[in-house]
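Section 5.1 Outputs to date
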Amino acid sequence: MSDSATPATPVTFPPAFLWGAATSAYQIEGAVREDGRTPSIWDTFSHTPGRTAGGDTGDVAVDHYHRYRDDVALMADLNLQAYRFSVSWSRVQPTGRGPAVQRGLDFYRRLVDELLEKGIKPAVTLYHWDLPQELEDAGGWPERDTADRFAEYAQIVGEALGDRVETWMTLNEPWCAAFLGYASGVHAPGRTEPAAALKAAHHLNLAHGLGTKALRSVMPARNQISLSLNTSVVRPLNPQSPADLAAARKIDDLSGGIFHGPILHGAYPETLLEATSSVTDWSCIQDGDLDTIHQPIDALGLNYYTPTLVSAADPDDKGPRADGHGASEHSPWPAADDVAFHQSPGEQTEMGWSVDPTGLHELIMRYHREAPGLPLYITENGAAYDDKPDADGKVHDPERVAYLHGHLSAVRRAIDDGAEVRGYFLWSLLDNFEWAYGYEKRFGAVYVDYVSQKRTPKSSALWYARAAKAGELPDPEGI
């Protein structure tokens, strides 16, 4: 047999490695006016003309609120060992203040019970961008009080579910909540105020710290608390250019250091504070805040899709900003008008994002160095493709299979290199409402017909089910 015909060495994972999938409340639940739920900022945003593709909303989404039992059965059929979902704050605490609505909490109690019955580990995210509208009306995340309200909400959910749910995440991608919501305006609440975005980032950090303390006060000590960050993997266009290296440092501070600095190390990067001094004096940081934010965490969630390629800006180049975060005349990067973004080379997904598994390995190893010994989970990773059923009703998505094989192989390489990666959550379990893109972009491993709500596992779901069962990556050509 020639070397070229020799089978590749199988990519196997440690026996305890956790195989999961993830979703978020507003993207899948629907039932936006049922059982006491009141509007979140995403209800308001999606119902504002011109904000979402086709005027799409999450009013029905994929009707998970009514179909959760069937969805959990599907998860079991796909051999999922864990399911990461988010709680809708305005379903549990409609005004963002005061007592809980038990009917809202009961939905999550039923969901958790169903998961446990099927042997699937529930992983709860408390905040995946759906702030109660009444809190936004009071100022939203740029207001300090919102962090206090979040701690109250965290305690409510912790008391209700903490006896059965051991894995908790306070926040998902606070960068998106702060900078897409308050700087570029492409996410809810659609504001374009750079100084407010930086305040929002600090108050989200504060919410994480206060929420962590609140959860620990009401839950068993065995429970693990973390959060999910989408730190950019920032690369300079010319690694030999000091100006491009400075641009990369600025974006790295704004995407990562602004969160992991205080959370992991108890301080914001001095380079961040200096670079943004023209926008804010950071007087929102009060005595004791950094100690509150710097709570011990039990793990760290990392979300990764594509790397970010930057250079120093050419003053004569007035082209669109190619940072992959939606079209807006307003930048999500405060005080970074001197930075230019470039399309990374290689194959692209339907989002226009380059497929580059080396970026995931790079991200993991960065946090392996940043927080030695801290367990890591890949809490989101996946790709959007233009999936369609064939004549037999089957959905073949070989591009996504190849994407998952490449990125899971990168996770395995990171484990071999010493990183303590304990699990992987595919984004997403189901096709769903993709924020401002409406229903145009499909990230799901399971195809959803949005008219009939019929679920059809794609080739990638069947491939991932085999991987989860065997703890080994199947041949991507074999599905």
